[in-house]
Amino acid sequence: MKAALAIFASLFLLPAASIFPAETQIRFVTWRPSPPGVWDQAIVDFEAANPGIKVVREVGPHSSTEFHDLVTQKLKNSDPEMDVFFMDVIWPAEFASAGWALPLDGFFPAAEQKKFLEAPILANTYQGRIYAVPVFIDAGLLYFRKDLLEKHAFAPPRTWPELVRQAKAILTKEDDPHLTGFSGQFKQYEGLICDMMEYILSNGGELWDEKELRGMLHLPKAKEAVRFVRDHIVGEISHRGVLAYQEPESLAVFTQGRAIFHRNWPYAWEVAGDPQRSRVAGKVGLASLPAFPGGKSAATLGGWQLGISRFSRKPELAWKFIAFMTSDRMQKRIALYTGRGPTRKALYRDAEILKKQPQLRYQFETFVQAVPRPRTPVYVPLSNIMQRYFSSAISIPNSDIDQLARLASRDMDRVLDLLRTRMAP
């Protein structure tokens, strides 16, 4: 342990040139960031602080599902060229179980981990070891047209049925053919799981039983929530285009002033409040997501982390880059200029951040209480099953939700049976 801590300290204290040879490259596999300037400058600063080190970026697709396919293909091929890569919050268990991600315990000791929010650290831990460092945290939030709610004497809705009633009333009175009641992420991809999980959990349902390893989508509470989305969110207050929306498309509808309510991650606040990018700047409110009557608001934990490929030939340099990108300085810059929630706890007491991004004071409580998707090495096949089920159930007006849910739970049980077999003594 002392040796590991010595390595950790040396990477922060010794000049880069004394450790790494000149003109060394590190390959960073990332998605296309928004806004790009913040991330571009971070890499420029890292290279300036480490003469002779060049960060080569490979930019993948924005979709979490498609980006996962790109990264896993490289890892399956034991690609030695990929050093550092972004991970969605649901991937660490899978990558750790497969032997693809390098354990970071020797670089990232427990004392340093305690400076971060507990939920993302837990999400990056598998079987007692940590495999990634969280860069920023996400959780689902409700954005709304504050001006329209005030105009029609509505308070932010606390329940999903109340949201539908308000949207219908405003749509009727505004009589604007370009206005829709709700904009969210309902395309068949990982974002659909995040959205639907919030409906199901806030109705007292579950995706699956983590202890018994059984699918739960066929049970009444889960089906009620899915049916509500089909009949009232998609079928009543949204237009059909919402079924093709990921985050950027759904946010664009809201910032163009064409949606009353909008579900998104915290970064959307910065975009919606920017007069250069939003027609509703200054007219936007923020609240916790509604629940169903008798239920509790549920926000899916999201966020992205940086990990090191087990096949990298430069793990020490890769860690130096991660340490820089997740430092107080860089997380503060990301928070100031993108509105994304930092994962370092101390930054929620930073006066400069709270002055420019006052919403983070409110969002902190949501981050602390956010619900993570289960940590399991078989999450991806389970997600694929749920994506197909949710997409079919909410996109077809007369879908047989009972049958679709029963088949989805059956298919999930088969995947979970494999995990149970692996865990058996």
Outline the structure in words:
There is one protein chain. This protein has 425 residues and is α+β, with helices and mostly antiparallel strands. 47% of the residues lie in helices and 15% in strands. It is built from 18 helices and 14 strands. The strands form four sheets. It has a six-stranded mixed sheet with strand order 2-1-3-13-6-14, sandwiched between helices. Strands 8-11-7-12 form a four-stranded mixed sheet. The chain starts with a helix and ends with a helix.
Short description:
The protein has helices at residues 2-13, 36-49, 64-76, 92-97, 110-113, 118-123, 146-151, 160-174, 190-201, 220-237, 247-255, 267-272, 315-325, 328-338, 351-356, 359-369, 379-395, 401-423; strands spanning 24-31, 53-60, 84-88, 125-126, 129-130, 133-139, 141-145, 180-183, 208-209, 214-215, 259-264, 284-287, 301-308, 341-342. With 425 residues, it is α+β, with helices and mostly antiparallel strands.
Q: Overall pLDDT, averaged?
A: 92
> What percent of the residues sit in helical stretches (DSSP H or I)?
40-55%
| Tally of helical runs | 18
Low-confidence stretches: 1-20
Q: For the CA atoms, what is the radius of gyration?
A: 22 Å
Descriptive key words:
four-stranded mixed sheet, alpha+beta, 425 residues, six-stranded mixed sheet, globular
Write the layout of secondary structure elements.
Layout: H1 2-13, E1 24-31, H2 36-49, E2 53-60, H3 64-76, E3 84-88, H4 92-97, H5 110-113, H6 118-123, E4 125-126, E5 129-130, E6 133-139, E7 141-145, H7 146-151, H8 160-174, E8 180-183, H9 190-201, E9 208-209, E10 214-215, H10 220-237, H11 247-255, E11 259-264, H12 267-272, E12 284-287, E13 301-308, H13 315-325, H14 328-338, E14 341-342, H15 351-356, H16 359-369, H17 379-395, H18 401-423
Parallel strand pairs: 1-2, 1-3, 8-11
Antiparallel strand pairs: 3-13, 4-5, 6-13, 6-14, 7-11, 7-12, 9-10
